Amino acid sequence: MDLSKLNPPQREAVLTTEGPLLVLAGAGSGKTRVITHRIVHLLDKRPGGLLARNILAVTFTNKAATEMKERLVHMAGPRAQNVLVCTFHAFGAEMLREDIYRLGWPKKFTIADQGDQAAIIKRAMRERRIDDRTFDPRKVLTLISKAKNAGKTPEPLGEGMGDDYDLIAHMVYEAYQLALKAQGSVDFDDLLILPSRLLREHEDLRHKYTQRFRYLLVDEFQDTNQAQIDLVTLLASGETRNVCVVGDDDQCIYSWRGAEVRNILSFDKYFAEAKEVRLEQNYRSTQVVLDAANAVIAKNPERKAKKMWSERKGGERIKVVTAPTEEEEARYVATEISRLVAGGVPADEIAILYRVNGQSRPIEEMLREKSLRYEVVSGSEFFDRREVKDVIAYFKLIANPRDETALLRIINVPARGIGDVTMERLVAHARRDSVTLWGAMERAEGYEDLPKGAAEKVKDFLQLVERYRQGYETGKLAEVTRKLLEEIGYKDDAKSLITSQASADRKLKSIDQVINSLEAFEKREGPKASLLTYLNRLSLDTRQEEEEEVPGGHKAVTLMTLHASKGLEYRVVFFIGMEEELMPHKGMQGEAQNLEEERRLCYVGITRAKELLYLTRSAMRVKRGKEVPRTPSRFLEDIPPELVEVMDLDAPRKGPAGDQEKNFFANLKERFKAPGTSGGVAPGSKPTVGAPTTGGAAATGTTGGVR
Ligand code: ATP
Ligand code: MG
Predict the structure, then answer these.
(1) Averaged over 273-291, what is the pLDDT?
(2) Which of 256, 513, 520, 667 is the most exposed place for a label (fewest CB within 10 A)?
(3) 655: exposed, middle or buried (C-beta count within 10 Å: 0-12, 13-18, 19+)?
(4) Do the beta carbons of residue 108 and residue 403 sit within 8 Å?
């Protein structure tokens, strides 16, 4: 490998192959590059007869994993194929597939998605006589997940502390866990926790895995939570302890999923002998972009100060743009993109970033109007569609007959005359006889409280599922699925239930998309493809849909949340909605800690840009039919005025003096005349007083392709 393509500290990080190593450095300094080069270096040197399969690289998203793998194969050739590159969750799922039976789960376990989790937690609440309309089951789940990721069980806080939810989480936790296990499922958190348990409790497995993975590499280490750290320390508990982690404490943006800045800052707590390397040169952005990013992040207290510099001196000034309305903001962005693309910037070098998923809608409309291709790195929206969930529930039940949530979902979809009363009785029998619901259904004919007709219908259903279970074992996934949907009349049913043609079309289209994705999966995996492996992949990778958006592999503009943009880079970035309540997000302003995280998010967004950065906002938005004036983001105030070019799209129509935003720009321009002098407090930067934090980032739908 050509080491000359690395700067001296990067080279040091690549060549220090033995023992624990921490690379702590700012955005765009080549941390991810260090990881790929280190792997290639290891493959070249083969220390101790090392093979590709002895290397494990953990990335934060599936997309990042795929890209890193491609890069490795490109650099090192086919021998890199056997390097395992995946996310923590995918790695956990892989481990569990082999060894989960040691913990009492069936080998063919399924992964519960959010819908399944909600169904289970509701049941657990009802069993404890807790009303799931008074208390939001999702909040209970959030608390349980938090506790699990911290390696704890939910505990009620002392008298006068915490609230009812802490108590409820504590009360239903065990029932939730037991129900998951009884139906042969695990949730996402279990994908991290159960592997650790396997390693802790079974010495032979610890031996097997520490022998196998002799070199560990973790990207984006600042966003690991306790469960992930536990897994890393266990995997690195052999003799070698060759673990290299890279990250940037300023880019820790997943604290709502339990990530903690201190994990990276106290890496030596886990690996006392760890060596540390700092990188200071930024290769990604122009000095202008970098200075803006540095100025914004500098305001965070308690950070490890970094000096970052770029050889790409100067650069185009940052465009700070105010549009009168959300539509005008979207129109401006789309028009600029048209202009840039016409001027030769490839569309896939342009990204539009936003804080919450909902912000993409007006932009999408404008892009469509201008016939610009785009892809939305969406969250799990596709998999939240009812028809997709139904089809997946069939898959889950066929792969794992214990999966009670899947069973209850589709037992009467399409209607086959098995009503609620029948199912309630069967569930009662199952509980009393300590068998699974499926087991109780097998005994249906023997239960006296079930009418003969009902028992027969149940039997027919079981036979149907059994038949398809065999069908999937021998046949092609997509083909068998087509047959199954035909036989149960799912499409006709979907059509008949819906009055509007448009929504019927959409339904049928999403079912076809599932079948397409099965086909693509079979093509990729070859003979290894099974319904169960497909399901596991699906749960871990909710990025199937957006591939549909761009047929023929044409270049497209990328739309995504700030959270999803981690690690990526684009020549041109549009960072939209630079307003208070969006950036920082409402509900995040109250607590200092959250405001710090919002600032880190802003830093992540800015540092995605290589050459050109737009920071746009609307002066007014319509909310519930009312026009609401918007205040510029306080973060805009932190960017030195000499770095920005201010543009007001509505300047000719501007109202009299005293207008809030006019002040803002007067202020900016004032500062622009006299660089160095602080412009004082912007109208936007209110003191941070008690805003509610309920919902939090977790509720803002930022999980885009992250698992
Ligand atoms: P982030 O914190 O955003 O994840 P990072 O530290 O992982 O950023 P990389 O993505 O690895 O940074 O690198 C940023 C860009 O700089 C990439 O395009 C990379 O190829 C380039 N780069 C890094 N190091 C060098 C180098 N020594 N010479 C030339 N280009 C480099
Ligand atoms: Mg990176």
Answers:
(1) 95
(2) 520
(3) exposed
(4) no
Q: Any catalytic annotation for residue 32?
A: yes
Q: So what's the ipTM on this one?
A: 0.99
496-514 pLDDT, tens digit each: 766 667 777 778 888 888 8
Q: Output Rg (C-alpha) for the chain, integer angstroms.
A: 27
Q: Provide the whole-model pTM.
A: 0.83
Instruction: Determine how many CB atoms are found less than 10 A away from the CB of residue 231.
Output: 22
Burial per residue of 522-533, b for 16 or more beta-carbon CB atoms within 10 angstroms, e otherwise: beeeeeebbbbb
- Only one residue has tokens 């540092």, namely 607
Q: What is the mean pLDDT of residues 701-707?
A: 34
Residue whose C-alpha is closest to residue 229's, from 179, 264, 181: 264
Residue of 572 and 419 predicted with greater confidence? 572
Task: Indicate which residue's Cα is closest to atom 24 of ligand 1.
Answer: 30
Percent of the chain at pLDDT > 90 equals 64
How high is the pLDDT of residue 191?
Answer: 94
- Following DSSP, what letter does each residue of 353-367 receive, concatenated? EESSGGGHHHHHHHH
CA of 31 relative to ligand 2 center, distance in Å: 5
Three-class SS of residue 176? helix
Q: Which parts of 346-441 are beta strand (E)? A: 350-354, 374-376
The answer to whether 27 and 251 are in contact (CB under 8 A) is yes
Helices (H), 541-632: 546-549, 592-606
pLDDT at 697 over 50: no
For 445, phi and psi rounded to 5 degrees?
Answer: -65, -25
**Alpha-carbon torsion 121, 126, 128, 130, what sign?**
positive
88-99 vs 190-201: helix crossing angle, rounded to 10: 50
Mean pLDDT estimate for the chain: 86
Per-position DSSP letters for 312-348, written without gaps between them: S-S-PPEEEEEESSHHHHHHHHHHHHHHHHHTT--GG
Report which residue type is found at 105. Answer: W
Residue 555 pLDDT more than 60?
yes
515 CA to middle of ligand 1, Å? 38
Instruction: Identify the residue whose C-alpha is closest to ligand 1 atom 15.
Output: 284
Q: What is the pLDDT of residue 698?
A: 33
Question: Which one of the listed residues 220, 230, 579, 596 is annotated catalytic?
Answer: 220
Distance 156 CA to ligand 1 centre (A): 45
Q: Is 102 a residue of the active site?
A: no
CB-ligand 1 contact for 33 (6 Å cutoff): yes
Please identify every residue whose CB atom is under 5 Å from ligand 2, which is an ion.
Answer: 31-32, 567
Q: Which of 224, 251, 325, 359 is an active site residue?
A: 251
User: Would residue 251 show up in a list of annotated catalytic residues for this protein?
Assistant: yes
Pocket lining: 38 vs ligand 1, CB cutoff 6 Å: no
What value does the mean pLDDT take over residues 232-240? 91
CB of 248 within 6 A of ligand 1: the answer is yes
The per-residue pLDDT for range 510-525, each reduced to its tens digit, is 888 889 889 988 988 8
Tell me the β-bridge partners of 278. Answer: 24
Paired strand residues for 279: 25
**All residues at 6 or more sequence positions from 695 whose CB lies less than 8 Å from its CB, including other chains:** 587
Ligand 2 centre to CA of 77 (Å) is 22
Q: Are 70 and 95 in contact, with CB atoms under 8 Å apart?
A: no
Q: Is 219 part of the annotated catalytic residue set?
A: yes
Q: Is 29 in the pocket of ligand 1 (CB under 6 A)?
A: yes
């995996």: which residue's tokens?
A: 525
Q: Which of 219, 328, 541, 598 is catalytic?
A: 219
